[in-house]
Design goal:
With 274 residues, this protein is an alpha+beta fold. The protein contains 10 helices and 4 strands.
Amino acid sequence: MKSAENYRRYLGRLLLLLFALLSLSAIGRPGEMKMGADTESTFAVLQTRTGAYTNVTVTKKTKDWIFILHSAGVCNVKVSDLPDDALVALGYEKSADAKGEAAKGSSANQQLAQLTHIKLEEVKEFATGWRQNSKAEMAQVQAFITTNPMAICVVLGIAALVYILISSCFWCICRKTHIAPGPLVWVPFLQLIPLLRAANMPRVWFFAYFIPIINIIPIIVFAVKIVKSRGKSPWVTFLLLLPLTTPFAFLYLAFSSSAPIQIETNEILALETA
């Protein structure tokens, strides 16, 4: 009886001791994660902030560290040094920086999508409004032409009179520089050719008038040359170049007295000899 009681007593103490050892083990490692037989993870290459490891097997994980076996030995690695893909594979959460970058990328994509949507909507609204305005303006013009044919005739008549007046001024300028203007003086654009002859300028300048920015040069040269050909003051050149005074300067060149005919010295000597 005494041996049975002693046996039960020893067995109870042994179970109590085992329970105490298990409790102390759990309390002494509070940060260690529970791992089963299938919780080991393997990586062919594990790239961390401190180095790279090959043939890696993770044997143990805690909150802040992992313990690994690799081709060169055994070591422990901080969780904060692991890349995001390794963190996800090992069951950790992504780092705060990665979350912030992902959030920024997502917000940037949303803003870009919103801006693109807004821009497309604005373009569509502008195109629709432009079409509607164009149609409305065309309808107004057609209605005006239909209901006011006399006004259209008056406008066209005034435009024709202005064009005839301008061409007449060009004709007079050519005649008063002793140049035959010919029929080209009445043809739009081509009337520049007799004017260039009146200013003693080569015809190649005609093409320079149609080149943007460069056409400033022939305009200035023509003003200087035509005033000189008409025998007028250089101040007329200045008035001819100012947009507000250009029409009056042309009228002055057209209807003022003609320039005197210049006879060459050789011709004078020939006349005296004769």
